[in-house]
Prior knowledge:
single chain, Penicillin-binding protein 2a (Domain 2), 2 domains, Beta-lactamase, alpha+beta
Amino acid sequence: MTQTNNLAEQKSKKLLILYTIFIMLFFSFLYSVFRTIHKERRLPTATTTVHDRSLRGNIISSDGYTLASSKKSYEASIRAESIDPDKKELFIKLFSLYSNIPEANIKKRFKNTKGAEITKGTIILSRDIDARGAAQLKSLAYKLRRLNVFRSIKLASGVEILYGLDVVENGESRLFPLFDVAAPVLGFVGDLREEDGYIRPIGKQGLERYYNKYIAYKQNGYLQGKRDVVGALIQNNESKSVPRIDGLDLHLNIPLSLQRRVEIILDHMKKELQADEILAGIIESKSGKVLTLASSNRYSPSGIKQQDIPVLTPNFTEYLYEPGSVIKPLTLAIAMQLGKVKPESEFDLYGGKFKIGKYTITDDHKFEKLSAADIIAYSSNIGITQIVWLLKGKEFHDGLKSFGLSKPTGIDLPRDLTGSIKSPTTLNHKLDSSNTSYGYGLMVSFMQLLKAYTAFNNEGVIPAPRIAAYLEDVFGKHYTLPCDKYTLHPLSADVANSMKKILIKTVEEGTGKKAIYPGLEVGGKTGTAHIARDGKYVQEYQSSFFGFVNDKQGNKYTVGVLVIKPKKKYTYFAAQTAVPTFKKIAKSLVELGYLFPEKVEETDVENRDQDSIIDEITPPKPLQEKVEPKPQENKPLSPQDLFKNI
């Protein structure tokens, strides 16, 4: 019995000990929790908002390459008085490891301009942290708090606040990963500072400006709620979140592969010809899709330098010039459309010399007579003068406008200058109509002529040129901007096809022989024009070739080349500058699978180019005063309910 009592007593003592230990552990746990809560509750517990800013949309080539995109930048800051002085070195060392910023640079942030240590206020440690770096630093902020690197600060109100490492979004930067590719078509951006100091990009030139309304940010996102004891935002029924909606992505008709190939060609030809600039464009003749719009003068939009300022302007629509003989096909086409002349109609050329009052017009070739078709093929100034005189001033004026001259082209670039042509009354004068008929006394842009020439390769219809294919929202829905009002129809199909044959003959027998590509249908017209300076024509030139290249499978492209001020000695005629450039571009279209030449027997095609160059460049007299048109902007047309489903 006694033994039984002893065992019971021992068992009771063990249970008491275990119970006592349990109670002690429980109170120890409660004390630990209370201590943690008491310590960490010095963090703000009011409702807090974490922002997720919307980004600008991407610009994407037709073959899927990103040409422009955006990324967020973050700012890291610390309250100087919140760091425990004994752990300041630890903070600097860890921040350096996580941010990849040298310790010496971080230490400088803790000193003022006089070199004295900063002990109060906010210190900006970095303003250019990417998303990955921001995530790492936010992780560091939590670890630093666990290491008791920070101490509380007593505010004037008596409330103690525990500050830490603060990492917040401070802006959005624009990236152009392919450097100068497609510049200046893409354009560039500037900084737009919002009220809270957040910096966003805003389009300043090119596509970035034209489509700014659509690719700019749409809706900022945020998460709103209370923070827990370690500063993390609590997501529960009381929290509120709004998703961000980025700007629309802009998808282009331009494939990177073709654009880059043409740019390399232009770079090479600019160097060879010692030109100021060379422009080139390729349009799908039927649809108006711009497959390439390239310049030899480019820049990197993400790092514009002082020397880039002269080349920031997209000269495709903003450089106005007197085009020379490439206007002759338009002049003949207008006369044919009005029934004034036929391709076989013959005209006197007076042996290559013709007087208008006291002024003399000359031709390189001393023909007595030529048909209308051959006047284009052999680029006769005298012949085209005879043709234009069959037209009234208003007929000629309206005919040029029907091709899109002195009007916006409708291309999706921000400044689409209209140029100028003489008034109908002025064009009633023989000398003025003569000069204009072969490309002097009027101002045009490269894009106007490239667009106009599509009429000869598309049965008289000129589609509106379009660089962008569509805009795409976050749900994958596509939007396009209307541009039908820029579609023109200057010629009947019969007249357009007759002109097409004439331009093919011009390449095969006339001034464009170097454009011949075996197995392809090639047509076009050369133009070499003097440049005027201070009211006088000087020994500087613009040379150009506008035409088309097609295959038997139905692929049809209108191609234009403009060479501005070639300086290589004796090499300024279009047949020596623009035409070889055109030929290289046609070759690229073949090599990249846009054109498929028929197999032809090998012929010595190059020997067909040995004739003398016949490209008239005689400037008109007297020089008409040029009127520079006022800059105009083509604002984007908003489609109905563009953002209806966003």
